[in-house]
Amino acid sequence: MNQAILSKILAVFLALNIHQASASIGDNLPEFENCVKMCDIVTCDGASRYSNLAESDYERMVQEQARKHVFQEMPLPFDLWLIGWKCYPNCDYQCTRIITEQRNLNNEDVVQFHGKWPFVRVLGIQELFSTLFSIGNFFPHYWGFQIVYRHYKKELALGNTEFCNLYFAYMVIGFVTCCAWTFSTIFHLRDTWTREQLDYFFAGMTVISGLYGVGTRVFKLYLTQNNLKRRFYALIIVLMYIGHITRLLTDWSYTYNMRANVLIGVIQYFLWFYQAGSSFNKSRKHSNLIDDLKDPDVNWTLTPLVLVMSVLCGMSFEMFDFPPMFDLLDAHALWHFATIWPALFWYSYMVRDVEDGLKDKKYD
């Protein structure tokens, strides 16, 4: 299971329920709408898009831009072009900053635009820290994938088919999760509709691939005698994902997407809790529970509980959302930061689960 992506899905759930009423206050501000309109007209040649634009208003806007240089002139600098900024979205960004600065001067609350805080761009990056922390999440999963892959190749050379089956399921999680954090990085670099879709598609793929991995472990589908069951289970997983994506492409719904992913994620949580509890009970060496909890040869089996609970505690960042500090660091970015360290331990736990547990049938 990928704790980080599930965390993101749960964060969406909280955002929908806590901030829905105020998520787009900035969008409806007359001063924001007028600002975007003027920028579009004077820098994007957008006058033809406004049928009620008077010639005198057009001349006034052009003269004001020539005199004050309120908006960035075309063509855009190379760093903005490279990341994917275009004229109209650049107008939208500039106006979020102009209106935010005006509201700060007037001691008014900072508001969101299009459901996002008005971040300051850095080298063209729309959300600097969310981008950096998405990259920070990528590397633990990449390293974890490499670790699992090495063990997979070793077992393959030894002809240990059953362990290969389980390692392969864990490799699927690692590979898909690396893709998910890659698209999360691209999305936070510059928010576009296509990038948002890819971010959601791969987030969903990671959640459901996690269900395949934990299901393969808990229900012992890696065993040779369960080959047919494992393939059938994989087919169900694939069909579920295809159905999910088809539903979104047919009728995009944030609420549906959130509910579907949270449902699958919660099932994973319970399965990993069950696996951790079962492994712990089978590996106990002491009559006293406290002694087992202190024993590193035993307590490592509870790693999933610790990682899951850590992620849930990190949800507090999303629950208590706040305007970005220094216009750069918000609760969502801190949330991404909080999901990095659990990923550092997840894959090593899965490998140890195989190497120290399954191979000697200690708690198979």
Q: How does the SSE layout of this entry go?
A:
Elements: H1 3-18, H2 30-43, H3 55-68, H4 78-83, H5 87-105, H6 128-158, H7 161-189, H8 193-218, H9 227-250, H10 254-283, H11 289-294, H12 296-299, H13 303-314, H14 316-319, H15 331-338, H16 340-358
Helix pairs in contact: 1-8, 1-10, 2-5, 6-7, 6-15, 6-16, 7-8, 7-16, 8-9, 8-10, 10-13, 13-16
Please provide a written account of the structure.
With 364 residues, this protein is mainly α. The chain has 2 domains: 3-21 and 123-358, Rhopdopsin 7-helix transmembrane proteins, CATH 1.20.1070; 26-105, no CATH class. The chain has helices at 3-18, 30-43, 55-68, 78-83, 87-105, 128-158, 161-189, 193-218, 227-250, 254-283, 289-294, 296-299, 303-314, 316-319, 331-338, 340-358. The longest helix has 31 residues, at 128-158. The model is unreliable at 11-23 (pLDDT under 50).
